Every structure is written in C-alpha cells, then in structure tokens.
Amino acid sequence: MKPNLTNIKNIVFDLGNVLLNLDFDASIQAFRNLGLNSEVVNRQQAYVDPVFYELEVGKATPEAFRKQVRRILKNPEATDQQIDDAWCAMIRDIPAKRVEMLKMLAKNYDVYLFSNTNAIHIKRLHSEFRDMYGIEFPSLFVKDFYSHEIHERKPDLASYQKVIELSGIIPEETLFVDDLEKNISGAVKAGLKTFWLKDEMEVAEVF
C-alpha cells in the first residue's frame, strides 16, 4: 500500500517507529536495574507517574524529571547519567535508507517532523545521529516540531493545530504519517491527509 500524494506539497513524519527504531522494553528493563518496581509500569501507559507526561509536554524540566525518578526508584544515589541512560535505552537507530528517503522526498516536497518526545531523548538522538551521519538531524526537515517545545502532544487536536499554525502549511495539501491509529484520527480531525504506517510496513519502501 502506497500513500496518495496527489496534490500533496508537504509531508509530516512522526519520529518513533516511523523514522527511529525504538525498544520501549529496553528502558523499562534499565529502570528496573536501577530499582523500579512493576507498579510504576503498565503495558497500556508504560509509565504511570505524571512526570513522564509532564516531561513530554515541557511542563517538567529534565532536572525535575530526574529528581522525581529518584523518588520513584527509591534510589537517591542514582546519577543524572544513569537516569538519562536508562531513559534513552529505548532509542535505537535511524537506518540509512530512511535518511536517504527523507533527502529524496525533500527534492519535491516540504518535509516536516512532529514527535511526542522530550528534551532528554532529543538531545541524545541529535548527538547520536550527528556521530553516525555527520549531519544535523533537523537539517533533514523544513522544521521539526517536538511536543516538549510546543507544549502540546498528539493525539490532542490542539497539537496539530499548533503545528499547522507554526509551519504555515495548508492541511489539505499536507500528508501526515504516523504509526499509531489514534494519532492518525487526531490528524484527520485537524483536516490533514493521513497515512497510517502499520507494523509490517517499512517507511522507506512505502515512499
């Protein structure tokens, strides 16, 4: 299945499990190694404590996040580096074929990024991407939008509206690509064209 690019001028990509490979269990295990008990984690929400959401929408600073994580872990000795490493354990890689896809698409479309993420993850991702490819990750996009910077997250309608406003894109001329059905539904409400990238699909082959 291929996306319909008729009359499309802009493509907005999600990050996690679309461009970036993730392994959520790796972070859960890393936190368990630091003392996390199973009550803080459930399969639906992953991390129950509100500080994880607050970090994602920029209401909690990385410092406040680490402080709360130490409380959750009941491990006051956990260092900033240990906490960041555990939190970033889920970050895997952005394969070269996806980087080439973005460069190719940028010749004919305005390419954007919109991700629910946080300052700790993005700092790590940008550093690792620079080390791997020798270029800055944001250089692949006209603009990259992150939930912790715009203080809104998918699938809330306000998040898409803010991205539309800040980028100046016309929704009817814009294709939004995400791996989560709820985020696709939110984008439809905002008037965006959508493509749901399902589990068995590889984005570099779809485009």
Outline the structure in words.
With about 210 residues, the chain is an alpha/beta fold. It folds into 2 domains: about 10-20 and about 95-205, 3-Layer(aba) Sandwich (Rossmann fold); about 25-85, Putative phosphatase, domain 2 (DNA polymerase, domain 1, Orthogonal Bundle), CATH 1.10.150. It is about 45% helix and about 15% strand. The protein has 10 helices and 7 strands. The protein has helices spanning about 25-35, 50-55, 60-75, 80-85, 95-105, 120-135, 145-150, 155-165, 180-190, 205, and strands at about 10-15, 40, 45, 110-115, 145, 175-180, 195. The strands form 2 sheets. Strands 5-4-1-6-7 form a 5-stranded parallel beta sheet. A two-stranded antiparallel ribbon has the order 2-3. Strand 2 (about 40) and strand 3 (about 45) form a beta hairpin. Helix 1 packs antiparallel against helix 4 and helix 2 runs antiparallel to helix 3. The chain is globular. It starts with 9 loop residues before the first strand and ends with a helix.
